[in-house]
């Protein structure tokens, strides 16, 4: 049973009709006293609570009722209903334990999405032995590891993916946040729709609206034609907002509006457009600290982190380092046609002891550079040490460039070019051999201006 607490009969009736038509049992309460009487005899699965009642518009009565509900039974999830002008109240409610907030006028699909997500995530966890096998139920092709921390994360990702809940992925640089975002999309109902990545750290505040919402012809001097924004590109799919912690306060307000109202206006246009997107955000910064410092909006923080996935640093799951190194080496075997390439046991142990502040990305670069600079098929500790020592690499193989002669981008370009030639431009095979997703490969092909024919979309 779901409990609707609102003094407005029209709102209670409207919500009840919506929820009943979607299979829920519903009860209504017109006042805090009515709600508390119901709670004395019944335990609802979820409560929809309006913050303002007829006798007060400050929200104090709604907040007081929320506090009493939390004391009475903190396990009951609560969704707050508020107007745009009182979102600050909703944020206070989230601090008191509310799960989400919906603004009036609400969108039926979004409200149902929030209700279903919270109810689904409230189901009890599977037994630990079953949880460890969760990865086999989902598509995690490019996520390598057996560490219990990672398996717990993948189990959570699998459960969250089938909902439309907003997800915040946190963790140090190089821990695989983009791969987790892509895994959420690949296991969702939107998997056949676009996955659009936006690196917010690379967009200036002056270009924010144009990049994310698009613009119409003549919106500014260089706007020669209409341009589709990233949100419109992601319609009915997923938008991945990477490095959200780099967004300035002015842009944060504009983003919050879109996430809340699900509408936007292209720059230079007065016509609103409705957008249906699943939002996944990522950051390597501490957003809670930024909120405390006033550099990140509290209301935006609570809007994007209904579900938070905290990725461990690679040093916290060092047992996965040899697995990752083997994975990278197996991909490089194909690219360089060196089928005998292997990682020695001493080298695997040595790699596990590295600090690897750059995490998976740093490990991948170390392995790639060692394969490039070593002529040995059995990669040993000495091979890795020499590849990381710029003074000794030239004596290792005079036919290969010294470290520093090529940038990592130039090496990446050469590896992609060789892989494309070897696999006859088959994008799926090239992506698998390089250990990246098709989405990541497409971006690199565009970055380096390498022509290709998409073999599946």
Automatic annotation (TrEMBL):
<keyword id="KW-0067">ATP-binding</keyword>
<dbReference type="InterPro" id="IPR011006">
    <property type="entry name" value="CheY-like_superfamily"/>
</dbReference>
<keyword id="KW-0547">Nucleotide-binding</keyword>
<dbReference type="InterPro" id="IPR058031">
    <property type="entry name" value="AAA_lid_NorR"/>
</dbReference>
<feature type="modified residue" description="4-aspartylphosphate">
    <location>
        <position position="50"/>
    </location>
</feature>
<dbReference type="Pfam" id="PF25601">
    <property type="entry name" value="AAA_lid_14"/>
</dbReference>
<dbReference type="Pfam" id="PF00072">
    <property type="entry name" value="Response_reg"/>
</dbReference>
<dbReference type="InterPro" id="IPR025662">
    <property type="entry name" value="Sigma_54_int_dom_ATP-bd_1"/>
</dbReference>
<dbReference type="Pfam" id="PF02954">
    <property type="entry name" value="HTH_8"/>
</dbReference>
<feature type="domain" description="Response regulatory">
    <location>
        <begin position="1"/>
        <end position="119"/>
    </location>
</feature>
<feature type="domain" description="Sigma-54 factor interaction">
    <location>
        <begin position="143"/>
        <end position="372"/>
    </location>
</feature>
<dbReference type="InterPro" id="IPR003593">
    <property type="entry name" value="AAA+_ATPase"/>
</dbReference>
<dbReference type="GO" id="GO:0000160">
    <property type="term" value="P:phosphorelay signal transduction system"/>
</dbReference>
<keyword id="KW-0805">Transcription regulation</keyword>
<dbReference type="InterPro" id="IPR002197">
    <property type="entry name" value="HTH_Fis"/>
</dbReference>
<dbReference type="GO" id="GO:0006355">
    <property type="term" value="P:regulation of DNA-templated transcription"/>
</dbReference>
<dbReference type="Pfam" id="PF00158">
    <property type="entry name" value="Sigma54_activat"/>
</dbReference>
<dbReference type="InterPro" id="IPR009057">
    <property type="entry name" value="Homeodomain-like_sf"/>
</dbReference>
<dbReference type="GO" id="GO:0005524">
    <property type="term" value="F:ATP binding"/>
</dbReference>
<protein>
    <submittedName>
        <fullName>Sigma-54-dependent Fis family transcriptional regulator</fullName>
    </submittedName>
</protein>
<keyword id="KW-0597">Phosphoprotein</keyword>
<keyword id="KW-0804">Transcription</keyword>
<dbReference type="GO" id="GO:0043565">
    <property type="term" value="F:sequence-specific DNA binding"/>
</dbReference>
<dbReference type="InterPro" id="IPR002078">
    <property type="entry name" value="Sigma_54_int"/>
</dbReference>
<dbReference type="InterPro" id="IPR027417">
    <property type="entry name" value="P-loop_NTPase"/>
</dbReference>
<dbReference type="InterPro" id="IPR001789">
    <property type="entry name" value="Sig_transdc_resp-reg_receiver"/>
</dbReference>
